[in-house]
From TrEMBL:
Keywords: FAD, Flavoprotein, Oxidoreductase. This is FAD-binding PCMH-type domain-containing protein. InterPro entries: FAD-bd_PCMH, FAD-bd_PCMH-like_sf, FAD-bd_PCMH_sub2, FAD-linked_Oxidoreductase, Oxid_FAD_bind_N. Residues 1-135 form the FAD-binding PCMH-type domain. It comes from the Eukaryota. Coiled coil: none annotated.
């Protein structure tokens, strides 16, 4: 959905539509679930809720299980169980040869690891087997604040949350700054606790600044939170994304926000423009729990913060939206370049580029580091010697 042109469909080519692969089969012992690759997270959550189960998946109900899981996957469960890909028990994959294999810890274990961050480079995954988590009611919701409280969050609450030595792994949040011509800048927190305990201490500082509107904090089924995040994303929007990883440092986070605010201000004449800046913790507990993935992050470097910007345009018949889209992309390139320079100067830069949030002009695979990239190339040559997924699937982030 943030993936670049040609990665999920293509003009004058073949699109493989997985949307009818709708299997969702919980195991008899309730401990894992088979999920067909055509499912959206909302469908998975709703099905599991009927058994009072949940799993580690995406925050928005309309996002597909496939792209998110294959690129890593940031979940409300991440502080408990790492990236979504870390939790996957088995991948059913159609290889370039047409053979169907199951990749797991005991069979095709090299492919199993390569798929944990290797994206669309190894085959078409038709099914993911995930572990389930007991209990489908969580506590959380959205709080909206005036931009005047920015310092309470970026200089204090957010940094304290990420760096808390007693980080509560049930707590997770996305700290957002949203701009549109109608609303100007707003601070939006998606607060989430992965059990039904209301108002856990972890969020105390986030609840201090006054609210602009009533919050939606509540105890509810997981699907209700995923629907809420989904509703906040304007449909029909073309997104220009970009991302960066840094250590928790308020100067750098503020600089990133300032650069985005300045860019939005200078481009505000663009019709249908919106600007969304997200700060997400990559907590120590999350990175310590990571499985045998290829993302190349060393747990000793944690905690980290994912910085993400999605600048959207709603195309209209009377606008030159393609030119506008290109203009915004160039602005994001400058923002990432300047923020990177600043983060390096402050010694808080981290090389990791999170693939599902990366722009087509970024190189997330290379960011995994030399060893993991060499491993991915070896596995690719073993399972796809003719490079079908390198050349015939031209979009996305390639290995060779
Ligand atoms: C509203 C919104 C909320 C989001 N929330 C989160 C979040 O909470 N956490 C997070 O980590 N990311 C999140 N994302 C980013 C999301 O992970 C990416 O957009 C991801 O690419 C979505 O996957 P998809 O299958 O829906 O997209 P697609 O565009 O269909 O696929 C993305 C890429 O994966 C490949 N791919 C997909 N399925 C398969 C398969 N079965 N086999 C082989 N290759 C496949 C495609 O070829 C393509 O290259 C969000 C995005 C949006 C728009």
């Amino acid at each position: 959905m943030y993936s670049g042109v040609g990665s999920a469909n293509i003009e004058d080519g073949i699109t493989i539509d997985l949307s009818r692969l709708k299997e969702i089969t919980p195991a008899a012992d309730r401990r894992h679930v088979r999920v067909g690759a055509g499912n959206l997270w909302g469908e998975v959550y709703s099905r599991l809720e009927s058994l009072d189960l949940a799993l580690s998946g995406g925050s928005a109900s309309g996002v597909g299980a496939g792209g998110l899981t294959l690129g890593g996957g940031l979940s409300t469960f991440s502080p408990r169980s790492g990236f979504v890909c870390d939790t996957v028990l088995n991948y059913e994959v159609v290889l370039a040869s047409g053979a169907i294999v199951n990749a797991n810890a005991n069979s095709h274990s090299d492919l199993f690891r390569a798929l944990k961050g290797g994206s669309n480079n190894f085959g078409v995954v038709t099914r993911f087997d995930y572990p389930t988590v007991e209990g489908s009611f969580h506590w959380g919701g959205t709080t909206i604040h005036s931009i005047s409280h920015r310092s309470s969050f970026l200089d204090s609450a957010f940094i304290d949350f990420v760096t808390d030595p007693n980080y509560d792994p049930y707590s997770n949040l996305i700290h957002n700054y949203d701009w549109s011509a109608n609303t100007s800048w707003l601070i939006i927190n998606n607060i989430h606790y992965t059990n039904a305990t209301p108002y856990p201490d972890a969020f105390d500082k986030f609840l201090e600044p006054p609210l602009l509107f009533n919050s939606s904090l509540r105890t509810a089924p997981v699907s209700s939170f995923a629907d809420e995040v989904d509703r906040s994303d304007t449909s029909g929007k073309l997104n220009n994304p970009a991302t960066l990883t840094v250590r928790p440092d308020s100067t750098t986070l503020n600089r990133f926000l300032d650069l985005n605010m300045a860019a939005a201000e200078s481009l505000k004449a663009i019709q249908g423009l919106s600007w969304n800046v997200l700060f997400q913790p990559l907590s120590s507990s999350m990175l310590t729990n990571k499985g045998p993935n290829v993302l190349g992050i060393d747990a000793s470097e944690s905690p980290l913060v994912n910085l993400f910007v999605a600048a959207g345009i709603v195309p209209s018949a009377d606008s030159d939206w393609q030119a506008d889209f290109d203009t915004v992309r160039e602005a994001l390139k400058s923002i990432i370049a300047e923020a990177t320079t600043e983060a390096k100067r402050l010694n808080v830069w981290h090389p990791f580029i999170y693939l599902p949030y990366a722009a087509a002009w970024q190189d997330p695979i290379e960011s995994y580091g030399r060893e993991d990239v060499a491993f991915l190339r070896r596995v690719s040559r073993r399972y796809d010697p003719r490079g079908v997924f390198q050349r015939l699937v031209p979009g996305g982030f390639k290995l060779w």
